[in-house]
Amino acid sequence: MTGAERIAKERERQITEEKWTPEHDDEHDDGELALVAALFATPELLYKPEFDYVNQFTFRDPWPQAWDERWDKRPVEDMGNELLGNASLPIDERIRQLEKAGALCAAEIDRLLRLKEKS
C-alpha cells in the first residue's frame, strides 16, 4: 500500500472502530486534531525543558491535557516516565505514527470544511 492508502485506511479505522465521528471531531475546535497530528508526525519532541525558579526544570508539554492515556500513544522509555522522539521507534512503528498523523490531518481538514460550509 502507498502512504496515501495507509492514511485513508487509518482514517476509516478511526471512524469505524474508534467511533471518532464528524460530530466528535467537531468538538475539537481548538486545533487539537492538527496539534496531535504534528506530535505524531515529528521525528523529535516538539518541546524542550523550561526553567522554572520554583520547580527548577519543567516541561511545557503541548499534548492536549484533556487527552488522557486512552489517546496519548506517544512512545515512552521502558521505565514509563520519559517521552522519546518518534525517530527512536522501529520503522514499522514509525510508519504507524505517520499513518495516524495523516489521518488526523484529514480529520482536521474535514472539520474545517464543515465549519466553512456552516458560515
Taking the sheet with the most strands, its summary is: 2 strands, antiparallel
Radius of gyration: 16 Å
Average pLDDT, all residues: 79
- What coarse outline follows from CA principal-axis ratios? globular
Strand content: 5-15%
Spans of 5+ residues with little confidence (pLDDT < 50)? 78-83
The spatial strand order of the largest sheet comes to: 1-2
Q: What structural class do you assign from the helix and strand content?
A: mainly alpha
Distance between the amino and carboxyl termini: 37 Å
The ordered H/E elements are HHHEEH
**Fraction of residues in helix:** 40-55%
- Count of distinct structural domains: 1
SS element count, helices:
4
Number of strands: 2
Describe the structure.
The protein is mostly helical and 119 residues long. The chain has one domain (3-118). The protein contains four helices and two strands. It has helices at residues 3-16, 22-26, 32-41, 91-118, and strands at residues 49-52, 56-59. It has a two-stranded antiparallel sheet with strand order 1-2. Strand 1 and strand 2 form a beta hairpin. Helix 1 packs across helix 4 (91-118) and helix 3 (32-41) packs antiparallel against helix 4 (91-118). The longest helix is centred in the last third of the chain and has 28 residues, at 91-118. The chain is globular. The model is unreliable at 78-83 (pLDDT under 50).
